[in-house]
């Protein structure tokens, strides 16, 4: 019953209530990337609960440094923070008895990371991949080819049976997306 919050961008009262109802003891906050809807209020929550923040990759320092300016776009108050630990490709993060691998998957943002739990085939992918779609790359410092490469070269090799939780929308599996996703399915990639 020890856990983490991944990407607590806002709705802090709802998150704290859910944690309390579940009876989970929080150990830290994990961040996939620096966009306000994923980390805008993470610093506030970390201070309130005395939790360390791990992630994202330091290439997202640009995004975290502008949280206070970006917050109003999401109708929220955001606060700039400094993570306790920037993450790199190949790092691990741990809580309770769980250890997750860190994969640096740039494209949506330059410092985006994915958290992968190999024993259960489970991943938190943030805004890299969605059921039937992929992350936007039209924001500053986004790169469409980097995103496609991250998905096909880092995520697909993990296996078709991997279940993933995206930053928005329903869960899916890598295998399902390889079959049906119009952006990164095997057929779409073959067409170029």
From TrEMBL:
This is MBL fold metallo-hydrolase. SMART domains: Lactamase_B (SM00849). InterPro entries: MBL_Glyoxalase_II (IPR051453), Metallo-B-lactamas (IPR001279), RibonucZ/Hydroxyglut_hydro (IPR036866). Its cofactor is Zn(2+). Residues 1-168 form the Metallo-beta-lactamase domain. Keywords: Hydrolase, Metal-binding, Zinc. SUPFAM superfamilies: Metallo-hydrolase/oxidoreductase.
């Amino acid at each position: 019953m020890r856990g983490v919050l991944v990407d607590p961008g806002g709705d802090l009262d709802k998150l704290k209530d859910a944690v309390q109802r579940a009876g989970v003891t929080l150990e830290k906050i994990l961040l996939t990337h620096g966009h306000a809807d994923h980390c805008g209020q993470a610093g506030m929550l970390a201070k309130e609960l005395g939790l360390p923040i791990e992630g994202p990759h330091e290439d997202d320092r640009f995004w975290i440094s502008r949280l206070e300016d970006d917050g109003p776009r999401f109708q929220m108050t955001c606060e700039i923070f400094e993570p306790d630990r920037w993450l790199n490709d190949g790092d691990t993060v741990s809580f309770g008895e769980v250890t997750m691998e860190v994969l640096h998957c740039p494209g949506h943002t330059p410092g985006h990371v994915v958290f992968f739990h190999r024993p259960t085939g489970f991943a938190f992918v943030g805004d890299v991949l969605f059921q039937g779609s992929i992350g936007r790359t039209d924001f500053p410092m986004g790169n469409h080819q980097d995103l496609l490469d991250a998905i096909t070269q880092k995520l697909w090799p993990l296996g078709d049976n991997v279940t993933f939780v995206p930053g928005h929308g329903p869960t899916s599996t890598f295998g399902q997306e390889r079959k049906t996703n119009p952006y990164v399915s095997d057929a779409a990639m073959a067409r170029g």
